[in-house]
TrEMBL record:
The active site is at 62 (proton acceptor). The lineage of its organism: Bacteria, Bacillati, Actinomycetota, Actinomycetes, Kitasatosporales. This is Uracil-DNA glycosylase. It is found in: Cytoplasm. It catalyses: Hydrolyzes single-stranded DNA or mismatched double-stranded DNA and polynucleotides, releasing free uracil. The keyword DNA repair applies.
Length: 223
């Protein structure tokens, strides 16, 4: 259920009463109708980016609630799915800031494989109802993920876009880790997001921490 590299730091969470209640709730929800992402992709972000390889943690809110969209990585969608508005704005900023072409897809696995943990604060959602699994226990679990990364000797960069993500700041030792804050890339706050140059800030911090900077280019899938 939990990827092996995370078991040592998160395994205890799975035994806690809140987590068992949470799993019961999610299974009840699945019995009633669609829940996204599929069961096997709930921990996909942790699977794609092992614990000891996290250089950057980008925090999202909850999964996309449309059928076939989310696959367990925040802001990312499966190949062949239309790029959602927030990710389109992330790509626009990337293009303006770094000159990288805007890709034809929203599949962010190339970031995850370089050490960018694409973590949602809530890991499941009822089909068609945004935030429907908020406040059921996922936040306790993902706070434990944030703390686990923050407790490592090896520093990381935490990317907190929007007020919701920035509420997690107390979980992070800002003396040891870098934090990149800014407006959320959603259409509601994109005017403040554009021009914030987050990718330059992130890579400067990653480099200062002694790690290889992230290559933010996403390859086109239509060849």
């Amino acid at each position: 259920m939990l990827p092996e590299s995370w078991t040592g730091v998160l395994g205890d969470e799975l035994e806690k009463p809140y987590f068992k209640e949470l799993m019961g709730f999610v299974e009840e929800e699945r019995a009633k109708g669609p829940v996204h992402p599929p069961r096997e992709e709930v921990f996909a972000a942790l699977d794609a980016t092992p614990y000891d390889q996290v250089k950057v943690l980008i925090l999202g809110q909850d999964p996309y609630h449309g059928a076939g969209q989310g696959h367990g990585l925040c802001f990312s969608v499966r190949p062949g799915v239309k790029t959602p508005p927030s990710l389109r704005n992330i790509y626009k900023e990337m293009h303006a800031e770094l000159g990288h072409p805007i890709p034809d897809n929203g599949y962010l696995m190339p970031w995850a494989k370089q050490g960018v943990l694409l973590l949602n604060a809530v890991l499941t959602v009822r089909g068609g109802e945004a935030n429907s699994h908020k406040g059921k226990g996922w936040e306790k679990f993902t706070d434990a993920v944030i703390r686990a990364v923050a407790d490592r000797p090896d520093p990381a960069v935490f990317v907190l876009w929007g007020n919701y993500a920035q509420k997690k700041l107390p979980l992070i030792d800002t003396e040891r880790h870098a934090v990149v804050k800014g407006a959320h890339p959603s259409p509601l706050s994109a005017k403040k997001f554009f021009g914030s140059r987050p990718f330059t800030q992130i890579n400067a911090a990653v480099g200062a921490q002694g790690h290889q900077p992230i290559d933010w280019r996403i390859p086109d899938l239509a060849a």
